[in-house]
Each structure stands twice: as C-alpha cells, then as structure tokens.
Amino acid sequence: MVSFLLLFLINQGEFSISPLYFDIKAPAGARRKVIINVVNETYTERIKILVQRADVIENYEGVYKPVELGKGAPSCANWLKFKDSIIELGPQSGKEIEVFVEIPTGIKGGRYGALTFTTQPTKEEMKYKTKIPVYFEVTIQPEIKPRISIEDIKIVEDIKKIPRFMFYNLKDAIAVLVSVKNEGDIHAKIKGNLILRDKRGRKIKEIPLGAGRGVVLPNTTVEIASIIKRLEPGEYTVDAIVRYGTLNPAKASANFTITKKKIEKKEMLLGGTILLSVKPEFVEMPTPPGAFRIKTILLENEEDSEIRVKAEIKELINDLEGELYSPDTFGYQYSAINFIQLEEKEFVLKPKERKTIKLKFNIPKEENSGGRYASLILNASKEGSPLPITYQIPIFINFIGKAKEEIKVEKIEVTGKAPVNFYIYLENLGDIHLKPKGTISINQRLITGAGEQVIKIGEYELKELKGYLLPKGKVKMFAEGPSRLKSGRYFIKVIINYGKDKELIFEKEFNL
Questions:
Q1: Does the residue 1 lie in any domain?
Q2: Residue range(s) defining the domain that contains residue 358
Q3: pTM score, two decimals?
C-alpha cells in the first residue's frame, strides 16, 4: 500500500491525517480492519470534524477526487463501517479511527470509495470548511486482469500550456503525453517507458514515462507524461510502452518531425488488443547440471481472425520495483538464453486454433549453482493491428540443491516528516532469485536531566515487491513511517527476511 499525507492549515488550526490511501486485497465475503490517524496539530484550539462516505473519480491527470455517492467509479463506499461521524480533538491530541471494510459475497473486480474528513466551524466563527479525503482501493480475490490500451500520443512544444507544468521553468524542453485507458473492471498499476529513435530506427534514448502512484481506475483515461530535452531538427519515432502486470504491455508508436520553428506529428500506430491465451504464464524448472528438458507452452487464438506469432528468447532482469522485463542489452551474468532452443520461431494460428510450442533446455554440466533466467517473447499481430502485441513469459531455471543466498543493504533514504517515508535499497549478492520482506523499527533517543532515554516510535512493514530480486540485481523497497515525527535524533533498525530462513539486520541513525 502506498500512502501519502497532506497537512492542511486552516483558520481554526492545523490537523493531519494518515494514511490517505488504502490498497486492500480480500475475497468476497471478507471483513478487514484499517486504522486512520487524525491529529490536531494546534497548541491552543479545539476542532470538530465530520466523517462521511463518498465515491471516487479520477481526472485526466491521474488525481483522485471524492464525489457524491452514486456518481463515481464502481463503489465500495457503503462497505466502509465506522463508529463516530463526528470527531472532536483538543489541542495536540489525536485519535485512531477504526474502519471495517465489509465485502459482500458474489462480488468480483475492483471497488473504490472514500471517507472525507471535513472541519465543522460554528456560524459565529465564520471560517471556511476544509475537506480531506482518505481513499480505498479494494481488489476482490481471486483477482481479474485489467485491460489497458494507449489511445493517443501527443508531442507538445509549449510546456506551459499543460496545466500541471505551467509553473515549471523549463527551457529547450518538449513534453510527450500518452493517453492511457483502462477498459477493465479493476484498477491497473501502470509503469511506462518511452523509446526515442532516429529516422533509421536506431535507439537514441529510453526514459521513464509518467510518475506518481500510477493507478488507473476502471473505465478511466489518464494522461501520463515525460519531459525531454528538445531534439535537433530531424525525423523521429517515439515508442510508448505501458506495463501493467500482465504478459502483454500496451504499446503505441508515433512519427514526428522537428524543425527550428515547430514540431509536427505525422503518423501514429496503435497496438490495440489481441485475444491470445498463453499457458503457463511463468516457467520455473528445477534441474541438475547437464540435464536435457522439454517444456511446452499452450497457445490459443481466441480471435475470429488469424494471428501471426513470432517467438524469441531474450534476457530477463528486474527493475528497482522488482518487476521483471527483457532489456535490449545482452551479457547478463545469470542469463539462460544460451541453454534454450525454440522449435518454431514463426507461425500462424487460425481462428480458435490451439497450438503447443516446445522449449528445449540443454543445461551445461559446468552450470551447477543458483539460478539462470530468460524470457520467452511472443510478438502477436493480426490484420488491422499495425503494431504487434508482445507477451513475456519469464523462465527460471533452478539448480537442485545448491545456491548462494546473500543480500546487502546498499543505502537507506529518509524523506519527509508527515509522514516519514523510508526507502531501502537492496542488492542481491548471491546466485539465486529472492523475494525479500522486512520491517523497520524506529526509536528516538532523548537527552534529559536523568540521562539518555530511548522512546520506541513504532514498527512498520516494507511494501512487498512486485516480482523478484534476481542475482546481481537491485531493488528499492518502501515503508511509510509514523504520520508525523518531530525534529530530533532517531535510530532505525531494518530486518530483512529472505531465502530459506535467512535474516539481515541493518541499523542507522538519522536526524530530522
């Protein structure tokens, strides 16, 4: 769960709420409890707050807004149960609000809602009301898959015409805006990349696309952006790739020309959707050294037209969130691409046809420890779809009985005060993939007349990785700390659990 905290300064005082987002996964019929912390930050004034349910919409910039019940995304607002609709807080006091999320039976997909906290000044005070929403994203298990498509790519020369960038002082820069639509029944967590190519198709650079939480609600279109330095006059192609946790990322491509006076978009190619079933979606194979193995992948064309498929084996690595992807580069030390042969690399599937493709594994005898990694890439296209749709199937080869499990903390970043956010950077020093989990405990040391005193602030869980930490790979794990910390001297203790009952302890002092 990713959470953010906003502080509101209002006439009758300052109050804070944490967290502002809950990401809940549970089966239909389940009941879950969460805690919302509300704190009156003033030293002299008492405040009264009204708590109400609301629905949620998401605007084009990816920002949530509370709306009246019945006017938002598929709603869970009426599932949110709490005791008191009025909260009164004295100066420098706080309260934990218990909220129960009661999910009905017979439900699937995603549901969304909010609780709004609104100040209630008296008529005599003549003060403005301030409303703070806390958002709930509920995923019903078993999860269904989102469906993401790219609708448009825009190249904008005058960045100040874009509202979110109008106050940025950006010179010699252009914006690439990509419109992304969620056509599914559940929210999608997206992560994008832009690849710039020259007129010959050669790659110039690859940059991240978009920022923030990257969540798109069902039946919602958002616009994600990247700012790049203005290119020299010439003809270019920009490829937009948006990953959202499925085998096939959304893709689109646009050709544009830059002159000294203007930027002109010439043509755009959209990937669309292709109904191709791929099973399994993940291949994991224990093996001894020197073994020969065959694995099969079952494809089914669910379209009413032919699908042309091109298959290849590529390398597999992880990004900082632990998400697995296939880079354009080669030379990964723990690659398995030289061990795998494809029986067929190009074929056509007739409407409703099923086909099995074989992966042949020839494992060298000298390879005998840890894991080796690759991915099967399937590029599928059909008539009327100008861009192929790419499916990625990760392949893990695990050598039986021998592996080096070792991890280290590279660094810790501490940002903010309300709340305090912790970023733990880990590196896998072993030769096998890992899925680390962990906690952070925080203590404050105070110097008093009686000597040094240690005060325990709390213990917080690290957010789970999306995928895996591969050998020699690095990840950034996140934990949201307390809703507010005062300036002072603190000590944190990080405990990372990984592999087969292994534990790493790392301690650090920091000052706020």
A1: no
A2: 276-399
A3: 0.75
